[in-house]
Amino acid sequence: MTKIIGVDLGGTKILARMVDPTTGESKGRVKRPTPKTGPADVLAKVADVVDELDPDRQCEAVGIGVPGLVTQSGVVTLCPNINGWDSPVDVASILSERLDRTVAVGNDVNVGALAEHRVGAGRGFSDMATVFVGTGVGGGLVLNDRLVAGDRGMAGEIGHVTTHVGGRTCGCGGKGHMEAYAGRAGLEAEARRRHAAGDENELVRLAGEGRIKSSFIEKAIKANDPVTLELIDEAVEALAISIGSMATLLDLPMVVLGGGVVDRLGQDFLDRIHSSPSFGGFGSHVCELRLAQRLDDAGVVGAAILAADAST
Ligand SMILES: [Zn+2]
């Protein structure tokens, strides 16, 4: 099987590996910091990383996962996590010319969904979605065995559906979005707001001035901290409403959950979401929930699968 280069382009690092897209196995590894000096330098660095990983040109195609909105043709229109990326950049065209190879570009969460679908928890399901609960909440959708990104790249963005009418302000500026309740940043903002208002809690005590990490959330739950338990109840409800609705609307038999918060809270958290009275849909078991299997390598593996799909 031809190997394909998978690149995980993040806000702080660029990681590339040679991946067999049929098995998800990978070899070779080049990792470099992401330049802070704008997209031209970032793309030049991606090309250098590919040259270094594959000097003999064993791989004919390159897939790249990017933390931003990506159009069908590989133009990255919005990329807030990379410094200086303030206008659309045709990443696919620029890099395919520079590298003289087929280049496919996708959103990082979407390519993570592809990795779960082909070589992770979603194997055997033609229709499925993934929901990654980390700082924010991202999602990816696979229908008929193909990634559905949408013309504007917004398909599967489940974090920004409204679950609480008139509720908390989301990172995107909207009100009552699921991410404001289930994402780590939304949870942190609410825990700090309550702490400052006199509702002291274990999350803020553990984190001090630092970030409220997923491990602190786990500890505060174990300590039965009342504010934390309330915040987690709300997170469970927001996830149950949105995932149950999505599964009903699209007839999805299975949804994969991953990301830092889910990795920490594990199967118990999934069971709570699944058994929540807010988990809507026809019947009580509209879809199964599974933990993600591809953890740190979902980005490179999924990017390579995207490129493999694009060249068939
Ligand atoms: Zn939002």
What features would you describe in this structure?
With 312 residues, the protein is of the alpha/beta class. The protein folds into 2 domains: 126 residues, Nucleotidyltransferase, domain 5, CATH 3.30.420; 168 residues, Nucleotidyltransferase, domain 5 (2-Layer Sandwich). The strands form 3 sheets. Strands 3-2-1-4-8 form a 5-stranded mixed β-sheet. The protein has a 5-stranded mixed β-sheet with strand order 11-10-9-12-13, sandwiched between helices. The longest helix is centred in the C-terminal third of the chain and has 25 residues. The protein is globular and about 60 Å long. The model has no long low-confidence stretch (mean pLDDT 94). The chain binds zinc ion. Zinc ion binds next to loops.
